[in-house]
Give the backbone structure.
Amino acid sequence: MDLLVRNGWIPDRGGCDLKVVAGRIAAIGPGLEAPPEVPRIDAGGMAIMPGLVNGHTHAAMTLFRGFGDDLPLDTLLRDRLWPVEARMDEESVYWGTRLACLEMIRSGTLVFWDMYWHFHGMARAVEEMGLRCALGVPMIDVAGPEQGRWCREEAIRLHEESSRYSERIHLTVTPHAIYSVSLENLEWVAGFAAERGVAVQLHLAETRREVTDSLERTGLRPAFLLDRVGLLHPRVLLAHGVHLDAEELDLIAARGATLVTNPVSNMKLAVGGVFPYSAAQRRGIPLALGTDGPATNNGLDLFQDMKILALLQKQAQADPTLLPAAECWRLATGRMAPLLGGSGRVEVGERADFLLIDREAPELCPGHDFISDLVYAASGQVVDTAVVAGRVLMRHRVIAGEAEIRREAAAQARRLCR
């Protein structure tokens, strides 16, 4: 789409206009013009900033927000989430994902990586809401070989059907974890992903138990087990990574896989450790920030997660200089993880995915350091406008269809959690 944004402001550039042609930024500067039929936005001095990138979530779990709080992860999954997830269908996933997209747009996230069931329900929701997403096709076989065969067949079928959606939606294959997928099926996933050229995302080293169980079962720590089955390479995204040791980080760096830290979810579930951010960053591992699902966060506001991540890292290593605001902003906008698909830049030639941020918001005053204020003071409430590929998804915090989304998602949640 084409668009002209007037009277914006970009750090290090100052006041400027921004012109979008065919979904990409065509020009930035003063006094830009466009044909009369091109839509126009008066930014009114607001900051034009890149959108945030959520590297790991389970969007449709908005339906379970507050449903299983204050429980250990094993208990939450076994006794609360898995029983109700078995009752989900494409329609419930559709409305849960639309609710998540609504929340993410309102808090500045324009790209997210998701893994969940009912691919077409997720894809329809994302297509309609206008975001970019890498959608996972799950693989899990804890119920036995038949479940694994069904997941393999689904992956093949859905890969063929995924072409019906726009370029904003990408299929990935998502084995849940090394403790919930057999070695045979992990190897199948590796071959399928290589053959089809798709990315892989999975949970790794989230808890100490995962590490000890892997050592007892295979004699290998989790990252080395993944490497053995062919699932450690530049198209692999690893969520959590709290309990990775130095040798595993060396291996991940050598293989070029991406790590996504999920500090709020990890703290809420008390996984017994802090993601080794500094050690991973020193090794040059691609890094990103994720919320995890709304059942374990319980929100999708990456502004809040940025602050918590930075403070947690400083506290854990007793060093206030760690993960400074500018670096945290780069992390949350995808600049430190090319696999995720967010450039983190507002520049000519980039996709026209950007936010208008209200510089007059009280939490951004007096304005000594704009990026620092975004990381340490702001919430998603400072986002006024969201644009993806030149399409305005939100203007003055208004999103079309919000009341219907909230109503239908609440109805689905009541049905599932009765």
